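Re: [ENG-882] Designed sequences occasionally contain unexpected residues at chain ends

Forwarding the minimal case from QA. Structure tokens:
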């Protein structure tokens, strides 16, 4: 029996979370966020986690690789347990940068383990949300 792993990235700031039964939930909100970083804001904010520069920025955040590795192991174990479908919900605040980059990385690593992966970026084309962090001045 093949498990279909359905990965959905989204932004919690949009107030319309995807529905799923007993999902694996991946919270990326502790990772660096391009719109909150003055060093890259102008260059990366209008891009998404599908862009290599944003993907690299997110994946080089301390803890990002460990977050992915931990969830790949969890998803792999649950898939091997024989479920026909496994939902993975990956969220950040706006659904355009961190969640997309991490979802892409999860999908690539799970596909490399011969899992059948479906990937959907729910909020990638939504407008940018205002930053929740105050700039220090």
């Amino acid at each position: 029996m093949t498990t279909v792993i359905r990965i959905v990235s989204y932004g919690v700031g949009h107030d319309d979370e995807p529905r799923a039964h007993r999902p694996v939930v991946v919270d990326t909100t502790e990772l660096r966020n391009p719109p909150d970083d003055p060093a890259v804001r102008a260059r990366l904010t209008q891009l998404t986690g599908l862009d290599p520069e944003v993907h690299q920025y997110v994946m080089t955040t301390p803890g990002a690789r460990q977050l992915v590795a931990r969830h790949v192991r969890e998803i792999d174990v649950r898939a091997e347990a024989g479920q026909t479908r496994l939902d993975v919900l990956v969220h950040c605040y706006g659904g355009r940068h961190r969640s997309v980059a991490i979802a892409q990385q999860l999908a690539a690593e799970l596909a490399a383990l011969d899992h059948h992966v479906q990937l959907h970026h729910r909020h990638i084309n939504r407008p940018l949300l205002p930053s929740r962090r105050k700039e220090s001045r």
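QA comment: On inspection the terminal residues look reasonable. The CA atoms of residues 87 and 113 lie 17 Å apart. Proposing we downgrade this to a documentation issue.
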